[in-house]
Write a sequence for this structure.
């Protein structure tokens, strides 16, 4: 889904010559990241600490 959104936004960027369309896939990835963090059965802060403390 993210790949399809990126391709569509790239086509719109080329056709309409507006770079703002390239922000849409980045925003979608950010939203996906937040949703995946919310799915972890820990608290938000604990989940963030877990992610960044992995080695």
């Amino acid at each position: 889904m993210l790949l399809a959104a990126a391709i569509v936004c790239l086509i719109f960027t080329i056709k309409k010559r507006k770079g703002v369309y390239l922000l849409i896939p980045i925003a979608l990835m950010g939203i996906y990241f937040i949703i995946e963090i919310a799915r972890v059965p820990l608290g938000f802060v604990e989940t963030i600490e877990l992610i960044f403390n992995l080695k």
About this structure: The first helix runs from residue 2 to 16.
